[in-house]
Specification:
- The protein has five helices and seven strands; from the N terminus they run H-E-H-H-E-H-E-E-E-E-H-E.
- Helix 1 (about 5-15) runs antiparallel to helix 4 (about 50-65) and helix 3 (about 40-45) packs across helix 4.
- Helix content is about 30%, strand content about 30%.
């Protein structure tokens, strides 16, 4: 049924709930982190609750499957860490795309249903978002995947 970013975003606005317990399970210092997977779009559609990375995956994969011309990607923000019930929380994920009028950011678990933009550049959004969240942003990246890229070890060979 969905044909546009707005269609997917309307579903997010009307159905998504944030899951703080899951956020703690996925926190940087959680022993559950490696055992707790990111929801697939189908799982999030059924469960209707999750965390920012679940929601951004839902948005990115849903839009890219119905309109690949948008080239929706992930916006990963690293905040100064906060501690909630012993859980260190610092990363936040959203979906981002660009068209002729600028950058648009959506699938924000803190503002479900909002499509922010257009912005001339991502730094303009980051400055505004830091003020909105009242948390210092240390860094940000636009990524093709939510999955960590494993660094490969380089083996040096000696001659002789």
């Amino acid at each position: 049924q969905w044909k546009t970013v707005s269609d997917v975003n309307d579903w997010i606005k009307n159905n998504f709930d944030y899951d703080m317990e899951r956020a703690k399970q996925l926190s940087d210092n959680s022993s559950e982190r490696g055992k707790t997977g990111i929801y697939s779009p189908e799982e999030l559609y059924q469960i209707k609750k999750g965390v920012c990375v679940d929601l951004s995956r839902f948005a990115v994969e849903s839009i890219n499957s119905i309109d690949s011309s948008k080239h929706v990607q992930y916006l990963m923000i690293e905040f100064e860490p906060i501690i909630i019930d012993g859980a260190i929380i610092k990363k936040h994920w959203m979906a981002i795309y660009q068209d002729s009028s600028g950058y648009f950011i959506y699938a924000d678990s803190k503002r479900p249903g909002l499509i922010a933009g257009p912005y001339k550049n991502v730094d303009d959004f980051i400055a505004e978002y830091q003020t909105f969240r009242e948390r210092k942003i240390i860094s940000w990246k636009v990524l093709l995947s939510y999955q960590r890229v494993k660094k490969q070890k380089t083996i040096q060979q000696r001659k002789g």
